[in-house]
TrEMBL record:
BP GO terms, sorted: chorismate biosynthetic process; shikimate metabolic process
UniProt-recorded name of the protein: Shikimate dehydrogenase substrate binding N-terminal domain-containing protein
InterPro entries in the record: Aldolase_TIM (IPR013785), Aminoacid_DH-like_N_sf (IPR046346), DHquinase_I (IPR001381), Shikimate_DH-bd_N (IPR013708), Shikimate_DH_fam (IPR022893)
Species annotation: Nymphaea colorata
GO molecular function: 3-dehydroquinate dehydratase activity; shikimate 3-dehydrogenase (NADP+) activity
Span of domain Shikimate dehydrogenase substrate binding N-terminal: 65-118
Taxonomic superkingdom: Eukaryota
Length: 133
């Protein structure tokens, strides 16, 4: 039975930006800020202009910024524009992370190419060790 899974809240943004990477065929976005039908729903403008949603496909490399808080980071705006300008098939997203060992366990796959950390996670990196090296 085909299923379309879209998560809500701050952790749900990636489920709306990345469906075509993982075989999904449908997602939706808010027409404008303040018009969201669910928490964590990006606007159509952000899907198209920040996340380059139309270019995301099965071969797209996924990069991101991890932290808690994380949504203050302008990384997706900067990196996605840079990726697009050099023709790199990649997308940069936010990851709200409060359990670093669990995050490393779940996202240590070839689909996820690399991550940066907010300063709020530096101490956690030191506690977990060199799990990203």
């Amino acid at each position: 039975v085909p299923i379309i899974g879209l998560a809500t809240g701050d952790r749900g943004v990636i489920s709306r930006v990345l469906p075509s990477k993982f075989g999904g065929y449908l997602t939706y976005a808010a027409l404008a800020a303040g018009k969201e039908s669910a928490d964590g729903q990006p606007t159509l403008k952000d899907m198209l202009n920040v996340y380059n949603f139309r270019q995301v496909g099965r071969e797209t490399q996924i990069f991101g910024i991890i932290g808690k808080p994380v949504y203050h980071s302008k990384g997706p705006v900067l990196y996605n524009k840079a990726f697009s300008s050099v023709g790199l098939d990649a997308v940069y997203v936010h990851y709200l992370v409060d359990d670093l060992p669990h995050f490393v366990d779940v996202y240590s796959t070839p689909d996820f190419a690399g991550f940066r950390s907010t300063s709020s996670l530096i101490a956690m990196f030191l506690l977990v060790g060199n799990c990203f090296l």
